Amino acid sequence: MKSSVNVTSKLPDVGTTIFSVIGQLSAQHQAINLSQGAPNFPCDPALVEAVSRAMREGYNQYAPMTGWPALKEALAAKVTALYGQHYDPATEVLISGSASQGIYMAITALVNPGDEVIFFEPAFDSYAPVVRLQGGTPVGLKLQFPDYAIDWEALRAALTPRTRMIIINTPHNPSAQVLTSADLAQLAALTRGTDIVVLSDEVYEHILFDGRAHCGMATHPELAQRSVIVSSFGKTFHVTGWRVGYCLAPAELMEELVKVHQFMMYAADTPMQIGFAHYLQRAENYLSLSAFYQQKRDRLVTLLQD
């Protein structure tokens, strides 16, 4: 059917996401698709049972807007135990419908027309379009082969009075570059005394190899005060189709995120939240993930090395 309505596109140069394009090509050519974080192995049956039990027990209506209280409390306790930063479950933790929604929500809430947002390329493909939708200007800084480390002097040179946000992604997709405590010190020094918000995409926080530690914004008290951290239960627990993520932020920033969240989807899926709250009680369910994925990485390297 041809539309009778003339449409002025807000994103005239944006087509189908590259993930869909590669997915279609891999299916057409029966190729292995390494482009998308969609596991081809099942999740823990105990997690499925926890969600199914919540459904059977009648938890099938809206959850509280900012998330199921027990899940927010479990998440805050986990972050404090692993990274040292305390977030108030009532005012500083928000359960979202995927990390992608969290990213969209944070940019929408905190970026205004004329603001500049710095991010690092190669990057997840939603960052720049979402900035543009808010009337902001995305500023991409290219990471360089082979180590894809952030050039802190280049970042310093890119900062202007219009810089409102810096988007960090650690561990980095797709290069696997991981920030260190020294990197966090550099970022803190560059943003000190400014109103720059750090949007930290940490969806791969538990996929670390060779004993590396996750140096997210919650490990640095100064950066935590200016950061929105976004992560993903779907990525962590191999259930990407469930579409549940979360955001952590100081109360003043979180207040603005909630204003957007309530009109985007109001609340994430209730039975999944209850299942995750139950599943987080056993720390081994997420602490074992690095070793689990390192086995897979090492096998892939062995099979490809020749």
CATH architecture: 3-Layer(aba) Sandwich
Encode the helix/strand succession as letters.
Answer: HHHEHEHEHEHEHEHEHHHH
Radius of gyration: 20 Å
> How many independent structural domains?
1
CATH class bucket: Alpha Beta
How would you characterize the largest beta sheet?
7 strands, mixed
Superfamily at the CATH H level? Type I PLP-dependent aspartate aminotransferase-like (Major domain)
**Considering DSSP H and I runs of 4 or more, what fraction of the residues is helical?**
40-55%
Instruction: Note the beta-strand portion.
Output: 5-15%
* Annotation, overall tally of beta strands: 7
Class by SSE composition: alpha/beta
Terminal CA distance reads: 52 Å
The CATH topology annotation reads as: Aspartate Aminotransferase, domain 2
Structure overview:
- This protein is α/β, with parallel strands linked by helices and 306 residues long.
- The chain has a single domain, classed as Aspartate Aminotransferase, domain 2 (3-Layer(aba) Sandwich).
- Helix content is 42%, strand content 12%.
- The protein is built from 13 helices and 7 strands.
- The protein has a 7-stranded mixed beta sheet, with helices on both faces.
